Amino acid sequence: MINRNTLVAAVAVGLVVLAPAFAQSLQENYNDFLHYLKIGRFDLAAGYAKAILDSSPEPVELFNLASDNPQGYALLLRAKENLADAELAALCGKMIDIIERGRFVRRSDPKVIVEEIARLSTTDRGRLAAIKRLNDAGEYAVMYMLDALADQSRRDEWPNIADALGRMSRQAIRPLVAALQTDNVGVKAEIIKALGKIGYPQSLPYLKFVAEKDDSPQLRTLAEQSIGQINPASLRAPAAHLFYRLGEDYYYHADSLAPAEDANFANIWFWNANTARLTREEVDKGYFSELMAMRCCEWALKADPDFGRAIGLWVAGFFKAESFDPQMPPYCGPNHADAMTYATTAGAEYLHQALARAIKDKDAQVALGVVEALSTTAGECSLFYRLGPAQPLAEALSFDNKAVSFSAAIAIAAAGPMQIFPESRLVMANLAEALTQSSEQVNEDIPMWNGPLADSYALRAAKVMLKLAVSRNPILDLSEAETTLIAATKDKRDEIQMLAGQILAHLKTPTAQQAVAAMALSQDYSQEIRLAAFNSLSVSAKLNGCLLDDTTVDAIYSLVASEEIDPDLRSAAAAAYGALNLPSEKVKNLILDQARR
Q1: CB distance 50 to 91 below 8 Å
Q2: Which of 3, 62, 109, 228 is most deeply buried (CB count within 10 A of its CB)?
Q3: How many other CB atoms are found less than 10 A from the CB of residue 97?
C-alpha cells in the first residue's frame, strides 16, 4: 500500500514538474532548468527544458542568457552528452541549436556591428568591450570596419579601428584577403598590417601576391613584413606555390579553414570594384571547402599562368564539389559549364594529376569524373601518361569501385592501344566483368552503383569490345573473354545478345562460331535476334571459314530447305550457309531437292 507521506511527496514532485507550465519568464525557466541540472534532478530539469522550448524563445534572448552564465552553458553542453538520459540530452540539443542561432543573429547584425565600431573610439573600457564584440562578429564585422577606414569623415577613429582589425580572429581572414583588391592604398595598407598581426598562415599566399605583383613599393614592403611576422620562410616561396598549398588544405578540409559553426551555410567573399565594398555569397557548407580550393587555384594561376599543378587540383576540386551538389552557386552565373566540360578541355597531364590524387585519396567520385573525361578526349599516348613512376589510368583499373575500374578499362579499350602494356589482361578482365553486370543483380542502390548503371556498363563494355574486334586490335585479346561472351549470347537483354554475337564472329574458335550458330537456330529467341545472329554467323564464316560440326550445319541446311519458316529468316540462314563455303554435296542436294518438286 502507498502510505500518506509517499502520496504527498509524489504530488509535490508532480507540481514541481508542472510548474514550468505556469507563466514564468524565459529567464526564470532557464535559471530553474540550470538549478535542477546542477543538483542532478534531471527529471525536473527536463520539465523546464520542455517549457523553454514550448515557449518558442527568441534565439537572441536565449543566447544572451547563455552568454551571461558561461558555467551554466557548460552544464548544458555536458547534459547534451548524457547517455544515461536520452530525453534530456535531446532537449538540451534543441536548446543549444536555438542558442547557436541566436549567436549568429547577434554577431551578424549590421546595426550592432556599426554601433560597436563607433564604440571603439569611446572610453578604454568601451573600446575593449567593442573589440571583444567585433571579434565575436568575425567575418561579418570586416566589411563595416573597412567602410569606416575608407570614410574620410571618420579619420579620428582610424587608429582605433586599425588596432581592432589586427585583433580579429581567423574568421576575419577570408573577407580581409578578398579586400586586398581595393584601390584604396591606405585601407590596403591597414589590411596588410592586420593580417600580419592576426598571424594565420592562410594569409600568406595573398600577402606574397601583393609582395610580387603590387605597383606600390610601400605595399610590397608592408606585405613582406607581415609575411615575416607569420612565417619568414614563406618569403622564399612563390605566391603560386603558396596558393596551391592553401588550395590543398581546403581540398582536404583542414580544421583551421573551417567556416563558423553557428550557421548552416558558409560565406565566400568577393571584392566589388564598382561599389568599392566587400560582398558575400552564401554557399552550402557541404562543398564550401572545394569551392575555396578552386578559388585558390585560380589565384595560383593569376600569380603564375604556367603553374599547371593548379589546373589538376582545380579539376579535382570541381568534380568533388559536384559530388555534393551538381549545381554551382549563384556567383558562378547561370551559364557556368559543368566539371566535365572543363575536364575534357584540360590536357591529359592535368587530368592525370587529378586522377592520381583521387586514387591516392580513394575518392571514387573524382576518379570516375576524370576517367570519363579521359575516355572522351585522350588517345593512347595520353591515356598512359606517367606521373613519375605511376600511370594513373592503369592504376584506376584496380580501383575498388566498379564504375571507376570499368570506366578505366573502357577508356583504354576505346583508345585502341597498339603498344604492349602490362595491364592489358586486366583491361580485358574488367570488360568481361562489366559485360556480366545487370540491373537484376542489384537489389538496392549503393553509392555510385545501381541497376541502370549496371545495364549501362554492360552495354558500353560490349560496344567497346566490338570496336576492338572490328579493328582487330593486336594488344587486347578478346579470346580471354570468350567464355563471358558466349554466356552473353543467352542474356535476357536483346542488345547485349546481338552485340555478343557480333563480337564472337571475330574470334577464330569453333566454340565462338558454334555459340553464334546456336543463337541463330534457337526458337526461344525473337526473330530480330535470330536474324542478327545469322548475320554474325555470315561474318564469322567469311573471316574464319566453317568451324561448325555437322549437326549444326545440317540444322542450318534444314532452315534453308524449309518453305515453312519466315522468308527473311530463311534468307538470312541461306546467306550464312553460303558464307560457310561448304563442300558442293550439300549445295547439290539443295538444288536437286527443289528440282524434284
Answers
A1: yes
A2: 62
A3: 12
